[in-house]
Write a structure and sequence with these properties.
493 residues; mainly alpha; Methane Monooxygenase Hydroxylase, Chain G, domain 1; Rossmann fold; Helicase, Ruva Protein, domain 3; 3 domains; five-stranded parallel beta sheet; 5 strands; 50% helix
């Protein structure tokens, strides 16, 4: 069997199991759904997952083997989640049948007053399970921890244990949110109860920060040093967690700095698309509030939610707006938000085993507080594209439109765009693409077919170079170079 067939086989099992578990989750979370149908779909999904996990990797190329390991790692997490949900549903069904089958004693007197229906905070079953029903401790703990099965615990964990279970460690498996639709993932998170954090604030974080995953590293031209650093911190520890332990444990803070328009935010989106982790996109507006004391509570809620769904990535764009160097004239609210952020990020009460990566992006690294720099041991300079990267970017942009540029023309064009950022080059290509349209009279433009349009040529780009100028000042580049030599990663120099 070829390596390509092995990879396709694993992908097929992964896709089929995802559809089965998705249907099971929809029925399971629907109070009117038939639990027998949910169990049937769980069985099918678990069967597909086990087949995909057992596909051998022998004979596959190194690249395909890496992809197979990544998919099978996700499948193992989904398998454990599906089995926990299945055990929970079985235990709930058995408990309900036992309670319903218990004989009732006829009443000779007046009818007793009806018991009030349980409210939103009460459990769906108040009575203790009968002695003939055994609920595994791990299942009860899991239900008390994640409030699965229609959003309410079927039986409280205190029924089976005298102590309250602690928060799960990072070694315990989590629900793989990257393989569950976003709406389902958000609704499941909203049903959770977070320790010492109000559900209202947690829901604000979930609604504002949780984003979809759509960008890959292959979609970004250049920035190889930044990509390798991100893979080392995020991707590789997921593929080989046994290697990244102790002194090799990945850093918990990563700072991307450099001139604007060079893909810092895009790199963060690529991490969200490549990593098997929940991604939170945070801005100053997400955490600040006009009410006194709510800002630091939102910071605490952010890290509480991130710990619950770890491994997770917290990305803060324009991080200098939150972690600017502290001064005497700072407002009390801003100072409290900074202090709470530092405590939650790396304070006394944090768990060193938490798998939370905090990524920051900024155009002004020199304005960050010293305490913030200490918490971002990895500082990557996202540079302007060099000539080779500019050439590659032009090829990517022009591949979407008809053009007559030869490789020699593209090489010449890349030499003419020194000090242009990625954003400037994109704007330049967009303006050049308008060249053939600008030459057409208005009546012809309204009737001409798109296939008969003139192709884009080098002359269009030459004209656009007089309109689209570099947006980054040379003196600003010297500032970034000096800061990088003093505080940043200089291994690629």
């Amino acid at each position: 069997m070829s390596a390509e067939t092995l990879l396709q086989k694993v992908k097929r099992y992964h896709s089929e199991s995802f559809e089965c578990i998705k249907k099971a989750l929809e029925i399971d979370e629907n109070q009117n759904g038939k639990k027998e149908d949910a169990l049937m779909w769980y069985d099918k999904g678990i069967s597909m997952l086990e087949k995909g996990i057992n596909v051998p990797k022998m004979g596959a190329s190194l690249d395909d083997k890496t992809k197979i390991i990544r998919i099978q790692t996700k499948m193992m997490k989904n398998l454990q989640m599906a089995k926990e949900r299945q055990d929970c549903l079985n235990a709930k069904s058995s408990t309900s049948e036992s309670v319903l089958s218990k004989p009732t004693r006829p009443h000779s007197g007046p009818p007793a007053a009806k018991e009030p229906k349980p409210g939103p905070s009460s459990t769906s079953i108040r009575s203790k399970p009968s002695s003939g029903v055994l609920i595994p401790k791990s299942t009860a703990t899991s239900r008390a921890r994640s409030n699965i099965a229609s959003g309410k615990p079927a039986v409280s964990a205190s029924r089976t244990s005298n102590r309250t279970p602690n928060r799960p460690s990072s070694a315990e498996s989590k629900i793989n949110h990257s393989q569950i639709p976003e709406s389902t993932s958000k609704s499941r998170l909203r049903s959770k109860q977070f320790k010492s954090v109000s559900s209202e604030m947690a829901n604000k974080i979930i609604d504002a920060a949780l984003i979809e995953k759509s960008v890959k590293f292959d979609d970004i031209a250049g920035q190889e040093a930044a990509k390798e650093a991100l893979k080392e911190i995020v991707i590789y520890p997921v593929l080989r967690p046994d290697l990244f332990m102790g002194l090799r444990s990945p850093a918990k803070g990563l700072l991307l700095f450099g001139p604007p328009g060079n893909g810092k935010t895009l790199l963060a989106k690529a991490v969200a698309g490549e990593a098997d982790a929940t991604f939170f996109n945070i801005s100053a507006a997400t955490l600040t509030s006009k009410w006194v004391g709510e800002g630091e509570k939102m910071v605490k809620a952010l890290f509480a939610v991130a710990r619950e769904v770890q491994p997770s990535i917290v990305f803060i764009d324009e991080i200098d707006s939150l972690l600017r160097a502290r001064q005497e004239n700072d407002s009390d609210a801003a100072r409290k938000i900074q202090t709470e952020f530092f405590l939650q990020f790396d304070g006394v009460g944090t768990d060193p085993n938490d798998r939370i990566l905090v990524m920051g992006a900024t155009n002004r690294p020199q304005e960050l507080d010293d305490a913030a720099l200490r918490r971002f041991p990895k500082r990557i300079y996202v540079r302007l594209p060099d000539a080779q990267t500019r050439e590659h970017l032009f090829k990517m942009l022009l591949s979407k439109l008809e053009n007559s540029l030869s490789p020699a023309d593209i090489h010449k064009l890349s030499k003419m765009c020194d000090n242009y950022s990625f954003s400037d080059l994109t704007d330049l290509a967009k303006d050049a693409a308008m060249g053939p349209i600008r030459e057409l009279p208005r009546d012809v433009m309204m009737t001409i077919e798109a296939s008969k349009m003139r192709k884009i040529n080098l002359n269009d780009f030459t004209k656009s170079l007089h309109k689209i100028r570099p947006s980054v000042d040379v003196s600003l580049l010297r500032t970034y170079e000096q800061w990088n030599n003093k505080h940043g990663d200089t291994s690629s120099l």
